[in-house]
Amino acid sequence: MWAYAVVPERTRLAEPLRGLADAPVQLLGDGSHALLVSVVASDAIASAEDPHALAAHAERHHEVVRRVLDSAPAVLPFRLGTVLRDDAAARVFLERRRGSLQRALRHVKDRREWTVRVDRSGAQPRGEPTASPPPRQGPGAGAAYLAARRHQLTTAETERRERAALLHDVGLALHERVVDVAVGHERDDAVVFAEHYLVERAREPEFFETVDACGDALLERGLTLRLTGPWPAYSFARTSMVEEAHD
Amino acid sequence: MSVRTVTTRPERPVSRYATGPRTDSLADVLERVLDRGVVIAGDIVVNLLDIELLTLKLRLVIASVDTATKMGMDWWTRDPFLNANAHDRALADENRELRARLEALERRLEEVVDDPDARACSPARRLPGGGRR
Predict the structure, then answer these.
(1) Of B40, B51, B80, the CB nearest to A52
(2) Contact state of B48 with A228 under an 8 Å Cβ cutoff
(3) pLDDT tens for residues A3-34?
(4) Which is it for the CA torsion B31, B37, B42, B46, positive or negative?
(5) How far apart are the C-alpha atoms of A228 and B53, rounded to whole Å?
(6) CB neighbour burial string for B16-38, b if at least 16 within 10 angstroms, e if fewer
(7) 20 to 30 A Cα–Cα from A204, which one of A50, A93, A123, A246?
(8) Closest chain B residue to A40 measured between Cα atoms?
(9) Minimal Cα distance from B14: which residue of A?
(10) Cβ atoms within 10 A of the Cβ of B2, count?
């Protein structure tokens, strides 16, 4: 029994959904909450040891969760690979975790996740030299070169500090528009800022205004802001709220 | 009371910096579903996937894609894992190569059958890569 997410009991799927291995997506409720699940054969899941299959599973899992976001006011996505033994196990889970599920769902109700990333792929800002100063010939050329180089490095350092200050301000401005923040972990060195935000749907216009203002300010410094979303609240489905079934 | 038209998904203005309507890139999706979301442990859960290991594998692949793209390479467009078309292309390439080699071998075979002394001939007469069709 592959689990996609927890939703409020009253949720009704707007359209029939097909999940992993094309199995139908069903709702399994206990009166308070419902689990979105699919009954899938074990070998269909285990085949995901192959990265190609895993990517397909991941996309399908995400697609189901994303679609349900349109039908439900609150969706708590599961991490990929949550497989419950059977119906009984599913009910045990819902019953034992009723309190924390309630809190977790309330936290994401009518809210959506948005991600803001800032990278250095913009145009070079004015004043920052791209190439080393060309070496000149003749007396005094060495000193002149060093002086030019020092100036270049100082300018670069100043640029760096001002950029850091701007990013700090961007963070503060955005935090005021959101309910919750989760820091993003980026592999890419070019990404200088990455955060995930939980935003009230009703407050999205103000959030976007602030994003635009920040984006404009960053562009002047050669930094590009990118907004992705809306996402189901993966980053805010607090894993700490769900402990082991036997505790 | 005013009458409002009801639409299923009222379109509200989005930020100018939003990257497209639904550009959920594979890397973004994978990062989310592998790393976040509710995690349950215990006897009600069956562990069929070693998510930690798979996450690591995928991160390595994605990291290589990032680096390669930045360096202007596009090997990943031919990697069957990352590109559905690449699988077919890879097969097609492989087929072509195998066919060429087969043809070359067949020609050599004909030669040898026709003239047993052909083996003694200079290899420059017949290039192993096969001629153009």
Answers:
(1) B80
(2) no
(3) 888 888 888 887 888 888 888 888 888 888 88
(4) negative
(5) 27
(6) ebbbeeeebeebbbbbbbbebbb
(7) A123
(8) B48
(9) A208
(10) 3
